[in-house]
Amino acid sequence: MSENTQDALPCWGPHDVGGRAAGPVDRSEHDTAQWEWQIDAMVRLLLQKGVLSDFAELRDGIEKLTPEDYERLGYYERWAAAVAYALIDKGVIAEDELRATVESLKEGRSAAGGAGAA
Amino acid sequence: MTSDHPHDPGHDHDHARTFQPDLSEPTSDAALIGVALRRLMIERGVYSAEEERATIERMAGANPGNGARIVARAWSDPAFKERLLADGAEAIKELGYDLSPLEFTVLENTDRLHNVVVCTLCSCYPRALLGQSPAWYKSKNYRARVVREPRAVLAEFGVALADDVEVRVHDSTAELRYMILPQRPAGTEGLDEADLAALVTRDSLIGTQRDLTPKDPAAR
Description:
The complex is a heterodimer. Chain A is an all-alpha fold. Chain A contains five helices and no strands. Chain A has helices spanning 34-48, 55-63, 67-72, 75-89, 95-111. In chain A, helix 1 (34-48) packs parallel to helix 4 and helix 2 packs across helix 4. A two-stranded parallel ribbon of chain B has the order 1-4. Chain B has a two-stranded parallel ribbon with strand order 2-3. Chain B has helices at residues 29-43, 49-61, 65-76, 78-86, 88-91, 127-130, 140-145, 150-156, 193-197, 202-206; strands spanning 103-108, 113-118, 166-171, 176-181. Chain B is 36% helix and 11% strand. By secondary structure, chain B is an alpha/beta fold. The longest helix of chain B has 15 residues, at 29-43. Chain B has two domains: 29-60, no CATH class; 63-213, Nitrile hydratase alpha /Thiocyanate hydrolase gamma (Nitrile Hydratase, Chain A). Chain B: It comes from Tistlia consotensis USBA 355. Chain B: Residues 1-25 are annotated as: Disordered.
């Protein structure tokens, strides 16, 4: 189908893709990587512990992504971004300490010669 | 009954397909944010590595065999099927599945009706019954197009629908999950529930597959 009349409408959020023009569906399968399971488990546990009140809080972080970031990030990367947004917003963690932790992870990786020590 | 069958229905669904590249190690900055958050949460004792392990184990244990078992029961027990279609969330409690507080609706395919499920806004999916959703279910292309040109998308999945078959697309929400009750294949009259469940694929529960094929009895 080539008509995309609905694309003439404004974009209310990068997540609201229903009805937009898009390409063929890539049907290949994808095994969930360990780090993806860990993000998944983190979301579950933070909900279970009441650190996050509900999924809506997380979706909010995803829906605030710029369209560019929404496209660029993978599925669990978007979830990670949303958890970060929510935890910083709630004051559970500080943005600075998250940045510092990411930097130390990167340093650890380059020190290990790029081999991914978990 | 399904309690003591030796095989695990659903364990081998769709394995014949190609796999997208394995991202076993997070490399992107965005993924490292996730790794960093995890480290902070565990260091602070918000949750423990052991709780994480148990959670992953539980999530990874869910697979389409659960949905298949529900379908097999519905095919075998008309009264159960009636309860399932009337109130899915309540009926599946009989088989030990509890999705509450979510609503759960089962949609029946017929000769004249085909149902397919999507979550246009995100990725809502009955994971407790179907396991992890496939990558394509979460992809923009599927979410964008299946509500607009379902027949074209279904054709990409190999589903050829006659013109007189109506298509209904069901958009999941955070509060409501869907599953399809596919049509029971012909020639399966003698099968017990465990063997019936083994015929049911993940994609048939989402609606991106329509026809199920009875397995060659000689191959079992």
